Amino acid sequence: MAKSSALLLTISWLSACATQPTTTQTRSDKPYLTEQQAMARSARVSNVSYKLQFNLDGSDTFSAVTDLSFQLTDTQKPLTIDLNQATITRLVINGHPLYPKYNGLFLSLNPLMLNTGLNQIHIEYSRPHSTNGEGLHRFVDPVDGKVYLYSHFEPAAAQQMFPVFDQPDLKATYELSVSAPNDWQVISATRETSIEPQGDRKLWHFPVSPKLSPYNFAMHAGPYHMWQDNSGKYPMRLFARQSVAAQVTPQDWFTYTDAGLRFFDNYFGIAYPFKKYDQVLVPDFLYGAMENAGAITFAEGRFLYNAAMTAEQKQRLAGVIMHEMAHQWFGDLVTMKWWNGLWLNESFASFMGTLATAKATEFDYAWRSFYAGGKQGAYQKDSKVTTHPIEVPVPTTANAFDNIDAITYQKGASVLKQLNYLLGEKVFQKGVQNYLQQYQWQNATLQDFIGSLANAANRNLDQWTQDWLYDAGVNTLQAQFSCSGDRIDSFKLIQKSAETGAKTLREQKVQVALLVKGRHELHLLKKEPVIYQGAETAVPSLIGAQCPDLVYPNYEDWGYVKVALDPRSFATAQSQLAKVTDPFLRSMLWQSLWDGVMSGALPLNDYLDTVFVNLPKEQDYTIAGQVLASLHTSKYWLESMLPLHQNYSERAQRAMAQMSLRLAMETVGNSDMQRRWFDAYISFASDELSLSHLKQLLQGDATLDGISLDQDTRWKIISQLNRYNVKGSEQLLHAEAKADQSDTGEKAAIAAEVIRPDAAIKAQWLRRINDDAAPFPKLRIAMSNIYPAEQAALAQKTAAERLQNLADIDNRKGRVFMRSYAPSLIPRECTHSSVVNLQQAIKDNPNLSTLTMRALQEIAQEEQRCVLVSESMTQ
């Protein structure tokens, strides 16, 4: 029987080949799809549905069957189906068994075997599980040996799990069945309709899903612990590995999820489209979270803690839940046609996620956190030589993530926030509702979205779109005014074009705030909404107002623009910082001072003097975190500059550590603030006294009132002790690794080992990194810890080799690997010679991937900034 089937299959294939048209196959054997190929395919293919059957047993491989149905407009050319590195055991095209024409990347279907109209393809295959966070990823828990699977498909990795037209504009329905061990859960876009016992296994059946782009579909499986909550508008479930279940606080997840679902139902005017809301905490995840329809995944490492969550951690959790939830409408219900629309997908979710966090949770200060964190990252990215427009072409799936950065997320979100103010909140909301209603279950474009907003506002947005979405760079805004007596007699806003050379001057709506000195505080005299555009905008409504000591032209952060304080305002900000009672304004003034350091206008040591005087008075949790972030960068710079400014560097770092310790001791009873200061103390400790004290705390020879050392904190201390090679630190590392054999413990041990100032350890890990001699999630940890700033001498031993081999590594390893490798292992040393070497490498390697070339260019620019900061320091 087997021989007869094989003979029939061979004859069918040979017969088909003999009569195949001479039309050439245009798709090359490349591991990506071009936009042109995708558009040509979607022009021919429609009404796609998948029937998927998976057999999962926890081993390294899985087997599956896919029945693919679709309509085809013509049979003039071959058609390809994406399937990555599988072993195909049976292929049937419209009832005819055939030998597959398969190159390990995609199946080529003979057009003579296809129909104009309905086609049905049956494919039986097996494939190894992925271990790099894409496709169907497999993870073995080191604690109990249990196997967990989860899928991740964005941008085009569904083909690593099943045969698929792997492009966003070929939406399809999915009918799933899964055979899995008895103790496993299986999670997908829909809720299972039945679970049939099969001895020591179960067969899960899922109903046909709504129409989804391939990257929005998901399947997760394993012995996950499950929590359920049916008290809200929609059924909610939460899943995590059994060995980490004790670290999960499900009520926080369910509280924020229910609040978000209620908010978005109301804001969008369309009920949540996927009936149930599942969230899964998964290990080894490449990103923060992923918006799979109805089955969202979250990175364990960012949302699991060994102590009660701080306010910052809860806010981060709420914000990411809201971000992924916004995608359920904007991204899953309505989806981009191609990957050039990914920025809008992410920008909108970032904007809406922050809005929902501010409106629907206790974190009503979410926009302040956004300003102090993500938005500053956008300003920095938009000021680099590698800045790019928000909307850019994406020629292939390999380029889909080239521009996924702070411009895509935070600048895009900031631009939408500004547009929300410019058009008016109700008008903006109406435009969004109309867009979702018109394009639900379809694909849409940027023009569709802007058109919906323009119609709601009854105004043309073509120039706005050009200026904001197709032109790069961030502009600068400064107030220019004069006073006669105690009254303003002239006032205008000066807009300057971007430092990167772009000449675009944009239209924005901002608030201008005037403040004057008081005995105990800076008083807000007036805030004035102003729409400005062009190089100069007069503000006649401020003529006659009291002459201010400080003008802030982007009060409450409506606009996306860098603020350059006029000289009088800058001096007031530096001397009166503690008297600013408005926390948002105080945050923005802190940022203005730090911007002065970044530009070389304010010496770093002068800034640090301001910090040491004012930060101990700061009671606002968010601002304390903002300023501490600038201190971390300052510490990095000071250590990078060595041996220059060595005496000052040692004094300043010791002052950072001792200030943090003192404030940790003074904030007993305020656990969030105390933990913030204690964590800062650990990370700033580099002097002998501080490191010795940390070792005593770790060993129980000293205590700190209000502080208990949970497992995460113990690893932070051990890493710091090993970083500075404190006596006995290596033994402490080995003992802790033996006591904590969890996944997080294994990764923390790698970080603490590789950060040691030991040339042999670093050489060993470099070989592992270059040879893929460890699982990628562990290699990522090693990369990010191998060369801390103060270990410049060790880094220089391999610097020339790393730079010389960059092109080869880039070519061999691919985008996922290089996203970690390039920022961590491209050499830097804060010297003019380093800048020259990096600029030469840019010239010598014109064929680097876009991602790696940008990293190289940005590091060269960062080195220039480090040299500038070093040279601007007062002696």
Automatic annotation (TrEMBL):
Ranges for domain Peptidase M1 membrane alanine aminopeptidase: 259-468
Protein family according to the UniProt entry: Belongs to the peptidase M1 family.
Record keyword Zinc present: yes
Source organism superkingdom: Bacteria
PROSITE patterns reported for this sequence: PROKAR_LIPOPROTEIN
Residue ranges of domain ERAP1-like C-terminal in the record: 550-860
Protein's name according to its UniProt entry: Aminopeptidase N
Entries under PANTHER family matching the protein: PROTEASE M1 ZINC METALLOPROTEASE (PTHR11533), PUROMYCIN-SENSITIVE AMINOPEPTIDASE-RELATED (PTHR11533:SF174)
Gene: pepN
Origin species: Shewanella avicenniae
MF annotations from Gene Ontology: alanyl aminopeptidase activity
Keyword Transferase: no
Annotated signal sequence range: 1-18
EC nos: 3.4.11.2
Cofactor(s) this protein requires: Zn(2+)
Reaction catalysed by this enzyme: Release of an N-terminal amino acid, Xaa-|-Yaa- from a peptide, amide or arylamide. Xaa is preferably Ala, but may be most amino acids including Pro (slow action). When a terminal hydrophobic residue is followed by a prolyl residue, the two may be released as an intact Xaa-Pro dipeptide
Alphabetically ordered keywords of this record: Aminopeptidase, Hydrolase, Metal-binding, Metalloprotease, Protease, Signal, Zinc
Every Aminopeptidase N-like N-terminal domain range: 49-215
